[in-house]
Amino acid sequence: MKFTKMHGCGNDYVYVNLFEETVKDPAAVSKFVSDRHFGIGSDGLITIGPSELADFRMRIYNADGSEAEMCGNGIRCVAKYVYDHKLTDKTEITVETGAGVKTLELTVTDDKVESVRVDMGEPILEPEKIPVIADKTPVVDEPIIVGGKEWRMTCVSMGNPHAVVFVKNLADFEIEKTGPLFEKHERFPKRTNTEFCELISRNEVSMRVWERGSDETWACGTGTCATVMACILNGYTEDKVLVHLKGGDLVIEYDRAANHIFMTGPATEVFHGEIENSTMKCE
Ligand SMILES: N[C@@H](CCC[C@H](N)C(=O)O)C(=O)O
Predict the structure, then answer these.
(1) What are its E.C. numbers (predicted)?
(2) What is the Cα–Cα distance from 154 to 121, expressed in whole angstroms?
């Protein structure tokens, strides 16, 4: 199986081009390739293939093999892959995801994609659609007991579920202790991604993320959008925010008139490789 390793702000995936390759058991392949000791090393697997609804279709599998609806950093890398590998010459493309069709604008320098602006669509705030067990809409600054302590969360779906929690002293925050308890908390029927954030100003936020199915990652595009929406719902920031993540920065803009969120950020190709299906025990 030929693959390409790419990342967006350090959120890294193994990408497989389904125009050339077949992946029979993506959940098992994702678990194998994601292993940083016995596999390739990544936060999961992303496949790029044909679509009947859009220019391309992407599917995203977390490191534990579970399939997610959408990946913000991944979709920017998909745009870079299809343009740089000459599957398209368009600089505005559409990509089908489990969270609907997204439109992307590519910024190209020396015939390579440098950054991508994605229309991430409407933030979803109804608890049953996120899903989170709560009795009010939107779920803003809502108390939740996790690990014997009361926290406050704001919940947003960007096609996938997010709980946003504001903390002080983010650098020292014990994310590996609290993240898994949020992820598997009974109030999240489909588990959740959790963003822990510290406000810097009305236009700047720092964020760390515990991802459903992939543990702590260095960035999360959908999580960054959910964070900015949570900041706006709590009255903490303006509509355009620079978000600092462990692996880089993303710019998120909420267009109130359209009720759409736009994400702009980099996409990077690291290396290509080939791996035997027998090595992955997925023939
Ligand atoms: N890293 C991603 C989100 C990947 C999926 C997530 N772990 C989930 O299960 O919903 C991003 O950049 O958005």
Answers:
(1) 5.1.1.7
(2) 19
Residues in the chain: 283
- Ligand 1 center–CA 220 separation, angstroms: 6
* pLDDT value for 222: 98
Q: Which residues are catalytic?
A: 71, 220
Same domain, 275 and 248: no
Q: Which two tokens stand for residue 155?
A: 């919940």
How remote is the CA of residue 110 from the centroid of ligand 1, in Å? Answer: 30
Could you tell me if residue 172 is inside a domain? yes
Q: What are phi and psi of 134, to 5 degrees?
A: -160, 155
For the stretch 91-132, pLDDT in tens is 999 999 999 999 999 999 999 999 999 999 999 999 999 999
Which atom of ligand 1 is least distant from the CA of 160?
Answer: 10
Residues 158 and 80 in one domain: no
The reported pTM is 0.97
Q: Is 264 helix (H, G, I), strand (E, B) or coil?
A: strand
Q: Which residues are annotated as a binding site for substrate?
A: 11, 62, 72-73, 160, 193, 211-212, 221-222
Specify if 134 maps to a domain: no
State pLDDT tens for residues 148-166.
Answer: 999 999 999 999 999 999 9
CATH of the domain at 233: 3.10.310.10
- Whether 151 maps to a domain, the answer reads yes
Euclidean distance between CA atoms 36 and 44, whole angstroms: 11
- Element at 224 (helix H, strand E): helix 221-233
- Nearest ligand 1 atom to the CA of 75 is 12
Structural domain count, the chain: 2
Q: What SS3 class is residue 186? A: coil
Give 92's contacts (C-beta < 8 A, 6+ positions apart): 103, 104, 105, 106
- Nearest-angstrom CA–CA distance, 280 and 185: 32
Q: Are residues 149 and 83 in the same domain?
A: no
